[in-house]
Structure formats: C-alpha cells, structure tokens
C-alpha cells in the first residue's frame, strides 16, 4: 500500500494561471522560471502546461542518473522538442532515438577517439593563429567587438577542417550566421505552446528558409565532391559515406549524410564557441586567474605555440575550462520523455510528459558545490568532477548519450584560449552585464563586447 501511495504522489510545483498554466512564464524566461521554481519547490518540480501536459524539472544527481543511464531506454529524446528541430537538423545523431541513433553513433565514434583527436590539434592552433593575425588591426586600435560571432566562425572553421577536411575559412562568417538564424527560428518554435501552421508567411520563416537553403547547398556540394573523390580523406564524412548496413547492405543517402553534417553544425561547433565566449568573459572578470594562466603558459610553452602535448602540464588552464563549463554549460537543458509511467524520487512521472534536466542548475546546487555561484577553478585541480558525485557535473550529459564530441571540445577550447592569450588580452566593455539567455544553447544576452589589446600593451 505504501508503495502505491508513493507512486501516486504528485511532485510540487507552481499552479500557474487559469487555462494557460505555467506556459507564459516558461516562454518569457525559461532560465529564470526554472531557477526560481527549483529554489522554491526543490530538486524535482512539476510544471502544468496547457492541454493537461506536464513538464518536470530535475536537479538531483541520483534522479539524473535514473533518467540518463539506469532507465535510459524508457527516456528517449523528447519528441515534442525533437519535432521542432527536425525542419532544420533532420534525423541525425542529435534528434534520433533507439537503434538508429546508436547505429549512427557507432559510425561516428571512431572519429572522436585517441590519437585521431590529438591529430586535430595543429589545425586548431593554425586556425586560431589566423584569427590572431586578423585581430591585429583591432588590437592596434584597442577596438571593442562582440566576440560571439568571432568565436563562432573560428569554431566552425576548426570543426570543418578537423571532421570534414574542408577549408571554410573564407565562408565561415556566412555559414555561422546561417546556423544562428536557423537556431533562432528553432528556439522560437520550441517556446511556442500553440504551434502555428508552417505555411503562414513571416519574416522569421523566410529568413530561416533562406539560411537553410544556403547551408543545404554547401553541404550537398560537399557530399557530391566527396563522392567524386577517388582518394578521399579518412574523416567523419568519408566514414559516414562508406558505412554499410551489415544486414541490408544499404548505404546512407545524401539526405542522411546531410542531416549528420548539419548535426555537427549544431552541436560540433556552436557549443564550443559559446564556451569560449564565456571563458574570455570570466578571464576579464577575474584578472588573478588570467595572470596565473599566463604564467603557466609562459612556463610550459615559452614563445612557441601551444600543442596537444602541452595540455597535461597546463593543469590550471584545464581546471579553469572545467569551471567555465560548470558555470556556463552550453547545453543548459536536456529534455526526455518517458515511454512508460515511472517514479522518480518518490513522485509520479507519467508517460508522455516532458522531463528536463538542467546542467546549468545542477552545477549550482549548494549541496554538491561549495560556494556554487563563486568562480573557483581550483575545485577541478584534483578532481575531474570537482569533488562531487559523477552526475552532479554533466556539461556533456552522461550515460549512453554522452556527447561524442566532448573529447574534441576539451582539447580545442584550452588550445584556443592559450593561443589567443599569447597575443592578446580581452577586456569586457565597461558596464556590460554578463547574463545568460535561454536559447537553444546558453547564449550571452546582448552579446559579449570586449576590447582587444596586445599583450605587450597590457604589460606596459
């Protein structure tokens, strides 16, 4: 009897407004609404939505492990959210579920392991050195620029060179802008609780279709060139192109190849670019940390460019980046939907509901993080998880759907930071408030305007 009563308990949460329930609050400010509800109601919160829908927010490591690992088959990607992504991303690793997802993952995984990853480092450093050259006129005049689009085109150049052996340096700005338009359109759709017919004309939809067409033309051209290549490079695109189903003998269609390449646009560069944006904002706000990283760089690298082999000695830089990911995880929420009724933390979780896990809030839980709002890279110097439970630190998710590109991100970002710091100091524009906004990823509200100065100028 007690187990039955426990199963029927409803999680606490806001009642919301008549008819529309909590919908308007979630649309208006998802980060703020989640944060306030968590602080008021605890680690498992129930939001009521129009149409008798329910949304659950989970901020507890054991409950997160339940969803992402122990009972993962019962918690596929949330179809409501996935459906909003599909017009842009299609059916790739990011949106797919079940056996199809894990088949695609098995094909992609070898591109993200071992010596292959270390081999990406020279291209990462070279691309950053090109950006350093481009920034010289800005630094000569100590100009202030929004570094968000700068990091976007750098990260896109790197991911295309390393994963697809393609130089997009001359087109990176246009491609990155197209991706941002597609993501902004998708974000708007994600926050609608009444979906409008896609045939209705709007400026946003027109811009989305134009941006998607630009990206499709680029990607399909890339696929066609690779199919004609008699000696293709052994990269992720070639692996997808040559993969063959063991049972049917079928290979991936151009549409499926397109969806996987676009998935890398979505998750393979924008997340890293945003983590770099937040990293430089934190360095500006914490000059003592910047001085310590510069001293470590001088000791390990001297006057030469950083390399992958330097990272084991750049311990404080790596700890700093882990703290960046704690405070500002680019993927700030993960959504799932149970196939069958379940119980989490003693509360009823009905089939078909939406379950949101928030790394952004989990990383700020005072039970697992001393001084959770404080900036303390030292917490990661002795522990890869900051000293807390494994599922309290989830910048790349956990379990079977752990981000396959996480190993690329933790190589790329420290190398980019190191190379830029060798030449410049980036300082936040006076009065700028570093505040995140709820987008597909964790963007800075109002950008990140920073003044670029030569290191020798800073040193006096």
From TrEMBL:
Question: Is the keyword Iron in the record?
Answer: yes
Which residues does heme bind? 403
Q: InterPro entries, alphabetically?
A: Cyt_P450, Cyt_P450_CS, Cyt_P450_E_grp-I, Cyt_P450_sf, Cytochrome_P450_Monoox
Give the keywords, sorted: Heme, Iron, Metal-binding, Monooxygenase, Oxidoreductase
Q: Name one Pfam family in it.
A: p450
Q: Which Gene3D superfamilies match?
A: Cytochrome P450
Give the matching PROSITE patterns: CYTOCHROME_P450 (PS00086)
Cofactor(s) needed by this chain: heme
A molecular function GO annotation: iron ion binding
Family, similarity comment: Belongs to the cytochrome P450 family.
According to UniProt, the name of this protein is Cytochrome P450
> From which organism does this entry originate?
Streptomyces kaniharaensis
